[in-house]
Design a protein that fits this description.
With 123 residues, the protein is α+β, with helices and mostly antiparallel strands. The protein is 39% helix and 24% strand. It has a six-stranded antiparallel β-sheet. The longest helix is centred in the first third of the chain and has 17 residues. The N and C termini lie far apart (30 Å).
Length: 123
């Protein structure tokens, strides 16, 4: 997780920093084959050099970005978990617990769906 240390150190709110570190650590531990990296000043994970999931920190939430097709696929699950979403990201409010089961579904889908994919982003 050293790759994320500067990013995490830049989060002023200690509760937000701890939650973000918890989520990034969970992804790293649950999916050890994914490559953690910082790109566009955001933490993300890749598999065979293709994007799997990314995160960003906002005042009211941790934003999760798994790509539009994943949000479309799991829109009902996202709403059922109590999160708001746009076409490109999911807003996980700081005051709500993290639904790691949902995160796992998003990541599992992307890993399987992009197994033979050779580009970074989907078209």
């Amino acid at each position: 997780m050293d790759v994320f240390s500067d990013f995490l150190a830049g989060i002023d709110n200690p509760e937000h920093r701890a939650r973000t570190e918890e989520v990034l650590s969970w992804v790293s531990e649950t999916y050890p084959h994914l490559v953690p990296k910082i790109a566009w000043n955001q933490p993300m994970f890749t598999d065979h050099e293709t994007f799997i999931i990314g995160f960003s920190v906002a005042k009211q939430h941790l934003a999760v970005a798994p790509e539009k097709v994943v949000i479309d696929q799991f829109s009902e699950d996202i709403v059922e978990a109590g999160y708001e979403h746009t076409a490109q990201l999911i807003r996980m409010k700081w005051k709500k617990p993290t639904d790691f089961s949902l995160l796992g579904k998003l990541i599992d889908f992307n890993i399987k769906d992009k197994a033979g994919y050779t580009k970074f982003w989907r078209k």
